[in-house]
Amino acid sequence: xPDFFNLYSPVYxxxxxxxxxxxxxxxxxxxxxxxxxxxxxLGGGTGxxxxxxxxxxxxxIVSDRSLGMLKIIRNIRKMDRLPGFYRxxxxxx
Length: 93
Fold this sequence. Notes:
Blueprint: H1 4-18, H2 24-31, E1 38-42, H3 48-53, E2 59-63, H4 67-77, E3 86-89
Parallel strand pairs: 1-2, 2-3
């Protein structure tokens, strides 16, 4: 049986935006990030929230079990190519 999130990954961000389910401001307000913080985004999906945090903290690591979601980070956000900002875990190389 195919992994739902691997199939859903290409439309995940548009869906979340359409229904107002991304709320990075709320997360920033709750975390109160500092430029010395290291953030581990478990189940980070396509990295949308982590991308919003990357300029506010020292480093962001995104981990997700869905290879499809991690491929969005690598191929669309292109963030794992910037040392010190993003690393993807889960075999997305």
